[in-house]
């Protein structure tokens, strides 16, 4: 299946006041709308993911899974700023005829949600049965549910927050510093920042997993080893994997987007913003998550009306939102029991 492209209204006005001319959003769909047009599931992806949700969220989306395309009309759109088909930093700036690179305008989580809202309207989807996302995708889903409370019937958010924390921003800044220290990033070239991106990924992994996850999977079985430790190889391997599929310019842009997340900005406060959500909400935290700790999920639960709150007991840390699909499915089944038999 290939991406479809949606051309945004041009110029697309951003929260910062800047404009993004000639922008487009890449998206994919699976399944079919039923006659009542009430079987739409919209997925918001995380930082380095793409529109192919069946590939990166297996076990939750796909044939035989809870969200089976045989039953649901599934939509997943790539965010602006990414390098997976939507307009991003390596695209051509119409004003200069050259790629944006570091000059790409600031995108906030509100901008990401607004772009997908324009797509929703273009697709003629007046109601969304379920809006789901984790991490940055959860931030976008919350923002969108606040912006358009009458559109979404159900909201499922996992390992996310109402405002990006100082802890999370510090992790992101450490990663951006690693990228900025790579001379090729400053030179502005297609593969600029690759070495910095490798280092940034190594930093990020420390926040995605945690002590127990590394201890259980990356401890060396050979006590005599002095160099070439398994944990070192793992960091390098994961850095190589990301460099092969992503770029430093999008990584910097979207990490800034994550830092911008604040549901209370211009709305009085966070509690007021969350109290306006009308969707039935399932909120899942992960017990071992050090990046989006349970305290952030509990803050959300205090203010979203009628929320169902649960915790996934996982040793995988923040990455549990991608890996613990059996646990997520269990809570989805409990969540949907009052409304229909799946």
Secondary structure elements and pairings:
Elements: E1 4-7, E2 12-13, E3 19-20, E4 24-30, E5 40-44, H1 53-56, E6 73-77, E7 92-93, E8 98-99, H2 109-123, E9 128-134, H3 136-147, E10 152-158, H4 166-180, H5 183-187, H6 194-208, H7 211-218, H8 230-245, H9 248-259, H10 270-275, E11 280-286, H11 294-303, E12 308-312, H12 320-323, H13 325-336
Parallel strand pairs: 5-6, 5-9, 9-10, 10-11, 11-12
Antiparallel strand pairs: 1-4, 2-3, 4-6, 7-8
Concise account of the structure shown:
It is found in: Cytoplasm. With 342 residues, the chain is an alpha/beta fold.
Description:
There is one protein chain. This protein has 342 residues and is of the alpha/beta class. The protein folds into two domains: 4-164 and 266-336, Rossmann fold, CATH 3.40.50; 168-257, Rna Polymerase Sigma Factor, Chain: A. The protein contains 13 helices and twelve strands. It has helices spanning 53-56, 109-123, 136-147, 166-180, 183-187, 194-208, 211-218, 230-245, 248-259, 270-275, 294-303, 320-323, 325-336; strands at 4-7, 12-13, 19-20, 24-30, 40-44, 73-77, 92-93, 98-99, 128-134, 152-158, 280-286, 308-312. An eight-stranded mixed beta sheet has the order 1-4-6-5-9-10-11-12, sandwiched between helices. Strands 2-3 form a two-stranded antiparallel ribbon. A two-stranded antiparallel ribbon has the order 7-8. Helix 2 (109-123) crosses helix 3 (136-147). The mean pLDDT is 96.
């Amino acid at each position: 299946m290939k991406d479809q492209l949606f051309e945004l209204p041009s110029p697309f006005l951003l929260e910062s006041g800047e404009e993004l001319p000639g922008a487009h959003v890449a998206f994919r769909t699976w399944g079919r709308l039923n006659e009542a047009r009430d079987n739409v599931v919209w997925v918001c992806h995380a930082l380095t993911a793409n529109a192919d949700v069946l590939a990166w969220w297996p076990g939750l989306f796909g044939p035989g899974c809870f969200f089976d395309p045989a039953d649901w009309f599934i939509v997943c759109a790539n965010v602006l700023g990414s390098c997976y088909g939507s307009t991003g930093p390596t695209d051509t700036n119409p004003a200069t005829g050259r790629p944006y690179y570091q000059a790409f305008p600031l995108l906030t989580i509100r901008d990401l949600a607004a772009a997908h809202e324009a797509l929703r309207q273009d697709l003629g989807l007046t109601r969304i049965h379920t809006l789901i996302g984790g991490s940055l995708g959860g931030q976008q889903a919350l923002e969108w549910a606040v912006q358009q409370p009458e559109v979404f019937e159900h909201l499922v958010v996992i390992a996310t927050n109402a405002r990006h924390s100082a802890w999370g921003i510090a992790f992101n800044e450490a990663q951006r510093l690693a990228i900025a220290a790579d001379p090729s990033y400053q030179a502005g070239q297609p593969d600029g920042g690759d070495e910095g991106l490798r280092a940034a990924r190594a930093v990020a992994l420390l926040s995605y997993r945690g002590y127990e996850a590394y201890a259980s999977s990356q401890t060396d079985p050979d006590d005599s080893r002095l160099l070439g430790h398994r944990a070192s190889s793992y960091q390098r391997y994961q850095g190589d994997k990301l460099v092969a599929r992503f770029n430093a310019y999008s990584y910097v842009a979207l990490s800034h987007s994550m830092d911008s997340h604040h549901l209370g900005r211009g709305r009085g406060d966070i509690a007021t913003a969350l109290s306006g959500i009308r969707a039935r909400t399932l909120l899942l935290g992960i017990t071992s998550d050090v990046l989006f700790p349970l305290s952030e999920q509990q803050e959300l639960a205090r203010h979203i009306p009628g929320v169902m709150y649960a915790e996934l007991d996982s040793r995988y840390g923040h990455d549990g939102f991608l890996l613990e699909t059996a646990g997520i499915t269990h809570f989805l089944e409990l969540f949907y029991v009052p409304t229909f038999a799946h």
